[in-house]
Amino acid sequence: MDVMRETLLPRDEQDVAEAVATAFARHQTLEVIGAGSKRAFGRATAADAVLDVSALTGVTLYEPEELVLSARCGTPVREIEDLLAARGQMLAFEPMDLGPVLGGAPRAGTLGGLFAVNIAGPRRISAGGVRDHALGLRAVSGRGELFKAGGRVVKNVTGYDLPRLFAGAFGTLGVATEITLKVLPRPETECTLLVPHLSPHRAAEAMSAAMGSPCEVSGAAFAPAGVAGRMPGLNARDTVALRLEGVAPSVQARRDLLRRVLAPFGGAEILDADASAALWRSVRDAAPFAAQDTGGDTGAFTGAFIGALWRLSTAPTAGPPLAARLADTLGAETYCDWAGGLVWLALPDADAAADQVRAALAPHGGHATLVRATAAERARVAVFQPLDGALAALTERVKASFDPAGVLNPGRMHDGW
Amino acid sequence: MGATAPVPPEAPRLAMPEPDARVLAGRAGIVADLRRLVGAGAVIDHPRAMRPYESDALTAHRQLPLVVVLPATTADVAAVLKYCHARRIRVVPRGAGTSLSGGALPLADGVLLGLGKFTRIREIDIANRCAVVEPGVTNLGITKAVEPHGFYYAPDPSSQIACTIGGNVAENSGGVHCLKYGLTTHNVLGAELVLMTGEIVRLGGKHLDAGGLDLLSVVIGSEGLLGVVTEVTVRLLKKPQTARAVLVGFPSSESAGDCVARIIAAGIIPAGIEMMDKDAIAAAEAFVNVGYPLDVEALLIVELDGPEAECAHLLGAVEALARDCGATTLRVSQNEEERLGFWAGRKAAFPAVGRISPDYLCMDGTIPRRQLPFVLARMRELSLRYGLRVANVFHAGDGNLHPLILYNANAPGELEAAEAFGADILRLCVAVGGVLTGEHGVGIEKRDLMPEMFNATDLAQQQRLKCAFDGESLLNPGKVFPTLHRCAEMGAMHVSGGALPFPDLPRF
Q: Which interval of the chain is the signal sequence (chain A) (predicted)?
C-alpha cells in the first residue's frame, strides 16, 4: 500500500521545513523515514505521505580531540562507526543493530533512526544510552519550523534539554535533521568472565556482586542454557557473562579482582578479546532471536509467521527471575542484559501476550516494548508501555507542543496521536 | 496578567514580571488559606522571618516573596500548587538556595515554596545500585549515606556540602568529574514530579530509559519551570579503588590546552582535568599554601582513578604527554594527602579570589576546548578595556570556563562594568561555538543573553514545552526566558505575508 502514497525527498533541512509546513497547512500527515530499516518497529503509522530524509547525509563536524561529532539524520550509522573507528573512537552506547531481529539487512540504519529509537547496547549500564550522548539538535517541528537546541559541548545547561527528549521519540516530536553526539575512545582491549550453571536468582546475585565491585564491568548478561546455545562462547549452559574493557594492565587487574568477587558463585572462565567481542555483538543485537531463526531461512521479514519479541526494562535484580517466570508461563525464550535490567523475551508465535507480559512486569516497575510483531498484532496491542492518568495527558501535551496538528508519524507510539 | 514587554537593551537588567495587584491585595486571605492547607507552622509571612529567602547565592538581586511555604509531604506540595493554580498565584520553588544564577529569586506576588523539609533518604538499594531520596537531601548527604557500602553519588558541584539533590535536578548540576562520570542527568534514574495543577507524575524509576517520551530529560535542568520534584532516584557508583593526581605547570595556556587535547586524543578520559591561570594560581597559593608553582602561566590538575595498575599506567602516559607539550613543572601525588593538597588550592579558588578583591562575579560559559587560547587572549583585551581584572579557573576536560571578574561594588559603576564584561565573555563563548552556561543555569543572570544563542523560533519552541507542563506560566516565571508569553499566543502559526509555503521537492 506504500506505493500508493506520495514520497517526498527533501535535499536539505530547508526542504524538510517546507515539506512539513505544507503538510501542516494542508492538514496532511507524514511518515518520516530514513533507511526505513526500523519501519516495522513501533505502531504502524497511517500517514498521507512519506517524508524520506535519507538524502540528508554527511558528517558535518568531527573533532576527535573534542570528543564530538555532528551528522545529518540520513547518514548511515555504519559510516559514522567506521569513521570513528579509524580514529580509535566509538559511539559508547554501543548501538544495537535492529536489522537481524526485524529480518532486514545488517547495519542498514541511519543516525536519525538510531536516535529516534534510543536503543543502546550492553554498555548502557556503564556508558549510558543514546540520550546520554546527545548534545545538540537541529530539527523541524510539526509546524514546519526549523529550530535548534543544545550545543556541541558536553557541559551545557542553556535552555531545556530537547536533544535528550528527542532521543526515543520515534520522530513524533519533530524531524531531527542534524544531531550532535558525544563520542568516546574505544577501549584498548577487553575480556569476558563466564560463570556457568547459575539459577536465575543466583545469576542476579552474581551480576549484582560484580556491578557492586570496583571492577567497572561494562557488560553483564545472563542467558539460560537454551538461548546460550545460540550465543558464541557460552556452550549452552545457564551462564552469567561479565565484560571488562580498558587498557591492558587495568583489564588484567580487574579480571583478577572480579574472579575473587565471583568466587562464591563458582569458578570463572575467561573469553579473550576476540571471543568476548563476538559474544557481546550477539548480546547487543539479540542475535539468538534474529528473524531468520524464527521466520524461515530467507531472513525476509514477511510478517506471515514470526514470533513476537519483547524488550523489558526493569530493576536489575528483578530481571532474571521475571524472565524465568515468563519463559515458563508463555513457553518463551529469554535472556537478560544490563545486569538483569533488560529482558529480551521471544514468544513462540505471533500472539504477543501483551497483558500477561505487562502484568508480570508491573510489580517490579519499568516498561515493556514490543520490538517485533506482525502488523496486525502491533495494531491490536500497545507496542509501548501504556501511560496512565496525568502522565498520559502530559505526554500528549508535550507531543502537541512540538506537533500540534499531529503531522508527524501519527499513531506511531500511541493510538490516536 | 503579568506578560512583560520585550526588554529593550537600555532597560534595567532585571525586569521581572509585573506583580499581580489582585494577588498582592489578597495576601492576607492567601496566607490564611495556605495555613489551613498545610498547617500554620509551615507558613512564614512576617517580613523579617522571610528575609533569609529574599535571594539565593546570586545575592546582588533580592526580593521578598509574597509568603514562604515549607511543605513536608508530596500531598502538601500538591495541595499548595493546586490552590495556587486555581487562584492564578505564581510559585517559585527553592532548595538550599545555592543557585548562582538567581533561579530561586522570589517574586513579590509569588509563593516561595521551600523544599527544605524533604530531607529523608527513603531507600538505599545497593543490589540495584540506586537510592531513593527526598529533594532536600544534600548532594554530599547522599554520598555520606551510602559510603558505608563503598558507594558514592558521582556529580560533585563545589557547593555539594550545602546544595540539595532537588536543586541539582533543577539545574542539571555538574562538578569537576563530569567528563568521566557525567552530569546530574546521567546519574538520575527517576523522579516524582508535582505539576502546577497539583497532579503527581512519576518519571523513570529503578530501570533504565523511558518507555515513552523521556520527560525526565527535560525536567532535569528545567530550573524549576516545569514542576516541583518531590522524590529523586539516583544512580550509585562503587568508589574507585584508587585516585591519583598530577600537577603540571606550563609556560602558556596554549601549551596547557594542547596537553589536554593530546591526553584525550590518546584515548585517556581522566576523572578530572582542571586548569588555572596565573592570577588564579597566585590567589589560591596565597590562600592555602599548597606549593603551586608561581612561575607558570597555566597549571593543570589531572586526576586518574580506577585500579592501582590503571592509574600507574595512565599516569605514565600523561606525564610523557605533558613533558612533550613543554611542561616546566610536574608533580605526581604520592599519597592521598598530597592529592587532596593539589585539589585544596583549586577548590579554594573562589574564596581565594575573594581575598584579593572586595567582590567578584563568577561566569560559567562552556567552549570547545581548542578555543581556549583565543578566548583567554580576548578576555585579556576585554580586561584592559573594562579596567577590571579577571582570574580564570577552567574545567578543562569538558570546556567549562569560570572567569572570575574582580570588582568593587562600592566603586560607582564597577558592578555595571563587571556585568557588561561578563556578558561580553559569554557572547564570546557563544561566538566560538560554546554556550552561555555550563552548569550554573540561566536563571535571571543570563536570561537576557538567551537571544545570543537562540533565535526567536528556538526560544518559542522551548516556551511551548513550558506551556505543556504549566499552561498558565505560574511556575517560576521571569526566569530563563527573556520574554514572557501567554501560552495561548504561543499556539499561533506564523505565516509570513499570508502565503502558505509550498515546497519545491523532488516527488515520486
A: none
